[in-house]
Fold each of these.
Amino acid sequence: MNRTNAPPETIPRIGMSHEQNWIQACKGGEPACSNFDYSGPMTEAVVMGNLAIRYPHKKLLWDGANMTVTNFPEANDFVNTHYREGWSL
């Protein structure tokens, strides 16, 4: 691509590996390019998309604040991890 016709860069470039970018953010630098302000809502949307595929003929009502499906409790089995007795995070 001819650089004279390239669109302007509107997203800052990290200039290092993604791992180093994350480490620098942990040490108090600029927020990482993959910070949770962006990735959290995106992950929530992906989970909802996966639930929609699993239950194609069911309208699922999502409570984002509590991270649960309110009208179909069976779907919540795919939202949260259930640990065996004696195991937890």
Note: The longest strand covers residues 62-63.
Amino acid sequence: MAQGDEFAPGDALRNVEILYVDDESHRRDAMRRMLMSLGARRVQVAESGAEGLKVVLGTTCGLVIVEQKMKPMDGIAFVRELRSAVNYPRALVPALILSDPASTDIIRAALGAGANHFLVKPISPAKLYERIGWAIADARPFVVRDGHYVIRPAKKAEPVNVDAAK
């Protein structure tokens, strides 16, 4: 999108029910408004990781967006708990973690915990819409590792034997 172009969301979110988990009320309110303006069918909010887990495990939810920097349960711990095998089938709900600029170690830990995607702030409606689309369309299979669902890592390509190809 070129600078100055306006973003106009499509209707990809019209049937999506989203849960946003954040311990700061002003961010919850702002994100709820942004998600509704993007066309989400319904947006629920939770003020803590524990509350968010109760909501996602007890209601219909097509996507969870969680803030990384929360206390006492941060976004990575939230996703790890959500992905517990005992929470099946709700354990497989797509999850997107948001954070202020984060190190590659944090992003790696988030993806290792089972997050579908990670989005670094500041965010624009267009970027959020794009990442939501990626998360809900993510068809990578899950595997259970240490009692938790994680996205199966891609298989490494086999080295090509040049001599055998001749």
Note: The longest strand covers residues 17-21.
Amino acid sequence: MQEATHWLTILRLVGAGLGVSIAPECVRTIASPDVVCLTLRDTKVFSSIELASLVGESRTIVERFAHIVKALNAE
């Protein structure tokens, strides 16, 4: 068993035949041709995405984006 924290490293380990991994869909775009990515069907897995910004952020674009995210999250 190998452990890694970066997806490129994980994909290289898989490509070298040192294991398998369950990864988010976006990892497929960086997988090398020697790695097979299969879609898991009928799964009930959810992932949280967080919004982070600097304390005291005052740029209008950041404030508006945060407002949109908060509104969508309230639905």
Note: The mean pLDDT is 89.
